[in-house]
Amino acid sequence: MSWTHDFLAVVRVDAQLHIVDVPDKVSLVAGPGYHPVVATANGAAFHAALTPRSGGRHRLHLPVEVRQTAGIAVGDTVAMVVQPDPTGSVPAVPDDVGRALDAIEGGRRRFDALPTPVAREMLAWIDSAARSDDRVRRIVRLLARVVEPA
To answer: Region 119-131: what's the mean pLDDT?
Structure first.
């Protein structure tokens, strides 16, 4: 199914992520679950995933590179455009994340088994860390998620 939606949204922080809430009409069209999308925020393009929230709604994480390129800060109203990502692929795993996954028995296999939108969102979240110590903490959280019993 192909669709494109444009909307205005206010940037907020939730669990240290800069996000925008997606309008109900977008969530209704997308359906439940994670959905890889191509998006723009004030004209800055990026790949992300619609992440489920309660009540069948979704949110969208704004990576630091996008916020910097578009001059976006918390509390700003941004012009968003979202549409399904036809590739739906996971970007290459950064070297430091790969080494961490390989250091845990079955870590890489478990990461590779994650739904594509989840893996993409997690890698984007790690890459959006502004400081190296934040990046390390995010990699540790990724590892904890990967080794959690199902």
So the answer is: 84
